[in-house]
Amino acid sequence: MSGRDGGAGGAGVGRDGYASATLPRHLLRGAVGFGAVAAGFWLLPVSGPVVLLAVPVGLVALRGCPLCWTVGLFQLLSRGRLRRTCQDGRCTLERVPRGRVAG
Question: What pLDDT was estimated at residue 63?
Fold first, then answer.
C-alpha cells in the first residue's frame, strides 16, 4: 500500500492507477484494446500469423491486460465517491456524502 490517505495507491502521483481521465476515453481504449486482441485471434485463420501483431497493440491500449482495464473502469466510476482513511494501521473505505468534495 502507498500509505497516502484518500489515494488509490496507483502507479503515479496524481493518477488513479489504471483509470483514464474521462469515461469516454476509457471506453474508447477498451474498444480499441478488446477489438485488436479479438481481431488478432479471430482473423488468424484468414490472414495468417501477421495479424497477431494486433494483439500487442490491443494489450498496450488495455494497459497490460483486460483485468487492468476493468480495474481502471471501476476506479474511474468510483472516483470522488469513496475515500480511504487509515488510522492505527487499519484502513477503511467510506462513502463521501453528496455535495462534499473528496480530498
Answer: 87
Q: What is the dihedral of CA 67, 84, 7, 22, to 10 degrees?
A: 60
Q: For the whole model, what pTM was predicted?
A: 0.64
CA dihedral 12→82→103→68, nearest 10 degrees, is 10
DSSP for the chain reads ----TT----SSTTS-TT--SSHHHHHHHHHHHHHHHHHHHHTHHHH-GGGGGHHHHHHHHTTTSHHHHHHHHHHHHHTTTEEEEEETTEEEEEEPPTTS---
Report residue 84 as a C-alpha cell: 480511504
pLDDT above 60 (res 24): yes
